[in-house]
C-alpha cells in the first residue's frame, strides 16, 4: 500500500484580516533601544575569554605546536590544538563532518591564511591574546593556489592528497567534483541558430557582510553536559554538529540562538562553537569567543568565486535554440562549492529544448566557503543574463521582450529537468515592462540593464508550539532564528488563523531543548515552513478551543465551529449559545481541562520557486571608471506577501548586496596568498549614500503548496543584480563588462583597452 | 514501475543511461530500489540527493507517495542561504 503523509498543503483563496498588513515588528523596540541580546552580549559568572591562533600562511605543513609557554602564563586556564579534537567514529564516516572539524582546527596542514591552529581560554582578553603569542608553531610553507582556473592546472599545488574528481583513477587534484545538468541536443540547437553569442566571465568572492561578528558562549560542566549560546541561523544544526565533532551525546548540549545581526547564509555553519565547547570542557568554566572583523573575513565563509563560460544561440525571431554553460566555482580549501546549484539555476528562467550546464567544484587555499543567499545562482545568472541581453541586442529585440519570448512558464519543463507548477516569471517581466522606470529616459553616460533571477526555495524540518495564555494572548515558539523579520510574519499568520489581534501573539525562538528539530533558517524557508507549521498549530488550538466550548455547552464537538475569533454553535442540533471568544475560553482553560496549546511538527515541502526581474540604470564616469547606480527597481513574485514591508526589505537587501558584489566587493590576496582587505575599510560594502532608493514591485502569484500562497523571498533578490548591472554598465560604457566587481580600476582598464582597439581598427 | 530521470553527470555511474525504471510507492522506496538496481549510485544516494516529484522539490519528506505516472527526477543535494 502506498504510504500517505501528513502534508498539509493546498492554497485556498481567501480574504485576509491581518496578513498583508504592515504592523510594527515585535523585535523592533528591543533592537533600537539596545535591549536585544546578540551573541556577544551573553555573559556567565566566572566566564573565561577565548582567542584563536590563526595560520599566517596560505598553505603550510604544521610540523609542531608547542603550547608550554602559553599554558604557563598566569591567567591561562586551557589551551587546545588538533590533539584536543580526535576524529570520532561519526566524523570518520562522514567527509563533510571531517572537513568541518579540520576547518575549525587545522590538523596536518594549514590550508589558508587565517586557518585556526590553536586556541586559548584565559581570565581576560588581554591575557588570552598574550598567550597566543607564546604558542610556537613550526610551519613548512608549501606552494599555494588562490584562483579557480590556476587550481585546475596540471602543475597546481595540490591541497588534499585524498581528494579529486580523478582521485578514483589514482590521481589527486583540486577538482573535487563535476556536475552536468540539461537535456536535448545543444550541438543541433546551435546549428539551427541564426545568431550565437558566447563569452567568458569571472566573479570575485564576496562575503555576506553581516554586521554582527560570530560570537558564542559555551558552558560545559564536569558531568559533560552543558549549554551553548551563539548567533546562528540554526541552533539545532549547531547542537548536532558540535556534539558529533566532539563525541558528545546530543542531549548533553542545549543550544540557544541569540538575536542575530545578519546572516545571509554565512551563519549556517560552525566556526568557533566547537572550539569554545572544547575549551570550556577542558577548563571547566564558561568560555566566550567573539570574532573580530579581521577574523570574520579571514576565517569564515565568503561565497565562491567563479570562472564562467556561456554560449546561447537563437533564431532571428528571438527563439532560443540552444544554451550551454561551463561553471568553475572555487569554494575554498574544502569540497562543496555551490556549483551544483549554479548549474541547475543557470538557465532556470528559460524554456529551452536544448540546454546544458557543466560545473566543476574546485578547492583553493582560501577559507571554506559558506552559503550566501541563493548559493551558486548569482554568479551563473551574471554570465547567463549578460549573454541573453547581448544576444537580444544583436537580434534587435527589446531585452524584456526577448526574455518574455523564451521565459519559463506554468507547466513548462525547467532547464534542470522537472516540470514547473505555477510560477510567476512572466508576471514579473510584464510588470517590469510596465513600470515608469523602464519607460523613462536615460541621461548622458547612462545605460539601462535588465536581468531575471530564480531560486528554488525550500521547506525542511520544522516544529512550533503555540501556548494560549489565560488573558487571551498566546506565546508562539518557533525554532527558526529570525534573520529577516519572520517573527512578525509568524505573529500575523497566527493572529489570522485565531481571529485575534497581531499584538496578542508573542513570538520567540525556542532553544534546542524546547522544540523538536528545526532545520536552519536558510533556503528562504522560515516564513514558508515555520509559517505553515504555525498555521497548523493555530488550527489545532482552534479545534481544542471548540472542544472546550462543546464541553461547556454540553454538545458534541462537531456541533461547534470557529468563526470570527470565537467558538460558535453550528448545525441544527447545536442549540442556542452565545459565542465564546478566544479570550473567554483561554480564561477558563484551567477549569475546562487544563492549558491549551497547539503544536505542529513537519518536514515541510511544497515551497514554490520564486522569480524576479530587475531593472537598473547605471552611469559611468569615463575619467575614473566609477559606476553610479542611478535607479534600481526589483520586481519579484512573493506568492503572498505576509508582511509587505519586510518582503520589500528582502527585495531591497538582496539588490543592495548584489550591487556591492557587482561593483566593489572581492577578496584581494597578496602573492603569498594572504588576504589583504580583511576589513570594511578595504572591503567596501555599499552604504546608504552610495545608493538610490531601491524601488519595489511585489507580484503575487500564489504558491499552490501553501494555504496562503506564500513563497520564500529571501534569496531570489540577489540573483539578478550582477547581470542587470553588468548590462546597464555595458550599455553605458559601450563595451561588454565580463568581470566583477566592476571596480573603477577594472572599468578604466576596460575603457582604455576598448578605446585602443577602436583606434587600431580605424 | 516508475521512470526515474537522473541528473546528467550520474550517467558516469549507469553506463550512460540517465533514465532508469524502478519500483516503489514512495520516495524512500524509489531511492532504496534505485541503489539496488544501480549499485554504483548507492554511495551518492546515501550521501544525499534531492528528489523532484511532479515538479515539487523534496529534500527530506521521503514518505511522499509516488505514482507509476509520476515525474521523478534525482537532482544534486540542495541547500540554501
TrEMBL record, chain A:
<dbReference type="InterPro" id="IPR037165">
    <property type="entry name" value="AldOxase/xan_DH_Mopterin-bd_sf"/>
</dbReference>
<dbReference type="InterPro" id="IPR016208">
    <property type="entry name" value="Ald_Oxase/xanthine_DH-like"/>
</dbReference>
<dbReference type="Pfam" id="PF02738">
    <property type="entry name" value="MoCoBD_1"/>
</dbReference>
<dbReference type="InterPro" id="IPR036856">
    <property type="entry name" value="Ald_Oxase/Xan_DH_a/b_sf"/>
</dbReference>
<protein>
    <submittedName>
        <fullName>Xanthine dehydrogenase family protein molybdopterin-binding subunit</fullName>
    </submittedName>
</protein>
<dbReference type="Pfam" id="PF20256">
    <property type="entry name" value="MoCoBD_2"/>
</dbReference>
<keyword id="KW-0560">Oxidoreductase</keyword>
<keyword id="KW-0500">Molybdenum</keyword>
<dbReference type="InterPro" id="IPR008274">
    <property type="entry name" value="AldOxase/xan_DH_MoCoBD1"/>
</dbReference>
<dbReference type="GO" id="GO:0016491">
    <property type="term" value="F:oxidoreductase activity"/>
</dbReference>
<dbReference type="GO" id="GO:0005506">
    <property type="term" value="F:iron ion binding"/>
</dbReference>
<feature type="domain" description="Aldehyde oxidase/xanthine dehydrogenase a/b hammerhead">
    <location>
        <begin position="33"/>
        <end position="143"/>
    </location>
</feature>
<dbReference type="Pfam" id="PF01315">
    <property type="entry name" value="Ald_Xan_dh_C"/>
</dbReference>
<dbReference type="InterPro" id="IPR046867">
    <property type="entry name" value="AldOxase/xan_DH_MoCoBD2"/>
</dbReference>
<dbReference type="InterPro" id="IPR000674">
    <property type="entry name" value="Ald_Oxase/Xan_DH_a/b"/>
</dbReference>
From TrEMBL, chain B:
<dbReference type="InterPro" id="IPR003749">
    <property type="entry name" value="ThiS/MoaD-like"/>
</dbReference>
<dbReference type="InterPro" id="IPR016155">
    <property type="entry name" value="Mopterin_synth/thiamin_S_b"/>
</dbReference>
<dbReference type="Pfam" id="PF02597">
    <property type="entry name" value="ThiS"/>
</dbReference>
<dbReference type="InterPro" id="IPR012675">
    <property type="entry name" value="Beta-grasp_dom_sf"/>
</dbReference>
<protein>
    <submittedName>
        <fullName>MoaD/ThiS family protein</fullName>
    </submittedName>
</protein>
Amino acid at each position: 500500500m502506498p504510504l500517505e503523509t501528513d502534508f498539509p498543503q493546498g492554497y485556498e483563496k481567501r480574504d485576509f484580516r491581518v496578513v498583508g498588513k504592515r504592523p510594527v515588528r515585535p523585535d523592533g523596540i528591543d533592537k533600537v533601544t539596545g535591549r536585544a541580546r546578540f551573541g556577544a552580549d551573553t555573559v556567565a559568572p566566572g566566564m573565561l575569554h577565548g582567542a584563536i591562533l590563526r595560520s599566517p600562511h596560505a598553505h603550510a605543513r604544521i610540523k609542531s605546536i608547542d603550547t608550554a609557554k602559553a599554558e604557563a602564563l598566569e591567567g591561562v586556564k586551557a589551551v587546545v590544538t588538533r590533539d584536543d579534537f580526535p576524529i570520532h567514529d561519526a566524523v570518520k564516516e562522514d567527509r563533510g563532518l571531517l572537513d568541518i572539524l579540520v576547518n575549525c582546527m587545522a590538523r596536518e596542514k594549514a590550508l589558508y591564511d587565517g586557518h585556526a591552529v590553536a586556541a586559548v581560554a584565559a581570565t581576560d582578553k588581554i591575557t588570552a591574546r598574550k598567550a597566543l603569542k607564546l604558542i610556537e608553531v613550526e610551519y613548512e610553507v608549501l606552494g599555494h593556489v588562490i584562483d579557480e582556473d590556476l587550481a585546475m592546472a596540471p602543475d597546481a599545488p595540490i591541497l588534499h592528497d585524498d581528494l579529486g574528481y580523478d582521485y578514483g583513477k589514482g590521481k589527486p587534484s583540486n577538482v573535487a567534483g563535476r556536475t552536468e545538468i540539461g537535456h536535448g541536443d545543444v550541438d543541433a540547437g546551435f546549428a539551427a541558430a541564426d545568431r550565437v553569442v558566447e563569452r567568458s566571465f569571472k566573479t570575485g568572492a564576496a562575503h555576506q557582510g553581516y554586521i554582527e561578528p560570530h560570537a558564542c558562549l559555551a558552558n560545559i560542566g564536569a558531568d559533560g553536559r552543558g549549554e551553548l549560546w551563539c548567533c546562528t541561523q540554526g541552533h539545532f544544526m549547531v547542537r548536532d554538529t558540535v556534539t558529533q565533532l566532539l563525541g558528545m551525546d546530543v542531549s548533553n548540549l542545549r543550544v540557544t540562538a541569540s538575536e542575530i545581526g545578519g546572516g545571509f547564509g554565512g551563519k549556517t555553519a560552525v566556526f568557533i562553537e566547537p572550539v569554545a565547547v572544547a575549551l570550556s570542557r577542558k577548563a571547566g568554566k564558561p568560555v566566550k569567543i567573539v570574532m573580530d572583523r579581521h577574523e570574520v573575513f579571514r576565517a569564515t565563509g565568503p561565497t565562491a568565486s567563479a570562472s564562467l563560460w556561456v554560449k546561447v544561440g537563437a533564431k532571428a525571431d528571438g527563439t532560443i535554440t540552444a544554451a550551454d554553460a561551463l561553471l568553475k566555482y572555487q569554494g575554498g580549501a574544502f569540497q562543496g562549492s555551490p556549483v551544483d546549484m549554479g548549474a541547475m539555476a543557470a538557465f532556470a528562467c528559460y524554456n529551452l529544448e536544448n540546454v546544458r550546464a557543466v560545473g566543476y567544484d574546485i578547492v583553493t587555499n582560501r577559507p571554506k566557503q559558506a552559503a550566501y543567499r541563493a548559493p551558486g545562482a548569482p554568479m551563473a545568472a551574471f554570465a547567463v543574463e549578460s549573454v541573453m541581453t547581448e544576444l537580444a541586442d544583436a537580434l534587435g529585440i527589446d531585452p524584456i521582450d526577448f526574455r518574455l519570448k523564451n521565459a519559463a512558464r506554468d507547466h513548462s519543463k525547467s532547464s534542470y529537468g522537472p516540470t514547473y507548477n505555477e510560477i510567476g516569471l512572466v508576471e514579473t517581466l510584464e510588470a517590469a515592462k510596465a513600470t515608469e522606470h523602464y519607460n523613462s529616459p536615460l541621461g548622458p553616460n547612462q545605460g539601462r540593464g535588465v536581468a531575471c533571477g530564480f531560486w528554488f526555495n525550500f521547506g525542511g524540518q520544522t516544529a512550533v508550539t503555540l501556548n494560549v495564555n489565560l488573558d487571551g494572548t498566546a506565546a508562539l515558539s518557533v525554532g527558526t532564528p529570525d534573520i529577516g523579520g519572520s517573527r512578525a510574519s509568524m505573529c500575523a499568520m497566527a493572529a489570522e488563523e485565531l481571529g485575534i489581534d497581531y499584538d496578542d501573539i508573542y513570538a520567540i525562538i525556542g532553544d534546542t531543548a524546547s522544540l523538536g528539530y528545526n532545520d536552519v533558517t536558510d533556503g528562504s524557508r522560515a516564513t514558508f515552513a515555520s509559517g505553515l507549521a504555525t498555521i497548523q498549530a493555530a488550527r489545532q488550538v482552534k479545534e481544542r478551543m471548540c472542544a472546550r466550548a462543546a464541553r461547556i455547552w454540553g454538545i458534541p464537538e462537531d456541533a461547534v465551529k470557529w468563526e470570527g475569533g470565537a467558538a460558535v454553535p453550528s448545525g441544527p442540533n447545536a442549540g442556542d449559545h452565545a459565542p465564546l471568544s478566544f479570550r473567554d475560553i483561554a480564561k477558563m482553560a484551567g477549569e475546562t481541562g487544563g492549558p491549551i496549546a497547539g503544536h505542529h511538527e513537519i518536514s515541510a515541502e511544497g515551497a514554490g520557486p520564486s522569480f524576479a526581474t530587475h531593472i537598473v540604470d547605471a552611469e559611468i564616469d569615463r575619467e575614473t571608471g566609477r559606476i553610479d547606480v542611478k535607479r534600481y527597481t526589483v520586481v519579484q513574485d512573493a506568492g503572498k506577501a505576509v508582511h509587505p514591508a519586510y518582503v520589500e526589505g528582502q527585495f531591497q537587501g538582496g539588490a543592495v548586496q548584489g550591487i556591492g558584489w557587482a561593483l566593489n566587493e572581492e577578496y584581494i590576496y597578496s602573492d603569498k596568498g594572504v588576504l589583504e582587505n580583511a576589513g570594511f575599510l578595504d572591503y567596501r560594502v555599499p552604504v546608504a549614500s552610495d545608493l538610490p532608493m531601491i524601488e519595489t514591485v511585489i507580484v503575487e502569484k500564489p504558491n499552490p503548496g501553501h494555504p496562503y500562497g506564500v513563497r520564500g523571498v529571501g534569496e531570489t533578490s540577489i540573483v539578478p543584480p550582477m547581470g542587470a548591472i553588468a548590462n546597464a554598465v555595458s550599455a553605458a560604457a559601450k563595451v561588454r563588462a565580463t568581470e566583477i566587481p566592476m571596480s573603477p580600476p577594472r572599468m578604466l582598464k576596460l575603457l582604455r583597452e576598448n578605446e585602443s582597439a577602436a583606434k587600431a581598427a580605424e | 514501475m516508475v521512470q526515474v530521470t537522473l541528473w546528467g553527470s550520474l550517467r558516469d555511474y549507469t553506463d550512460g543511461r540517465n533514465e532508469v525504471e524502478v519500483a516503489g510507492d514512495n520516495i524512500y522506496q524509489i531511492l532504496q530500489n534505485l541503489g539496488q538496481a544501480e549499485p554504483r549510485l548507492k554511495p551518492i544516494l546515501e550521501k544525499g540527493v534531492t528528489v523532484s516529484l511532479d515538479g515539487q522539490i523534496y529534500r527530506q519528506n521521503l514518505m511522499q507517495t509516488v505514482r507509476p505516472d509520476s515525474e521523478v527526477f534525482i537532482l544534486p543535494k540542495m541547500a540554501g542561504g
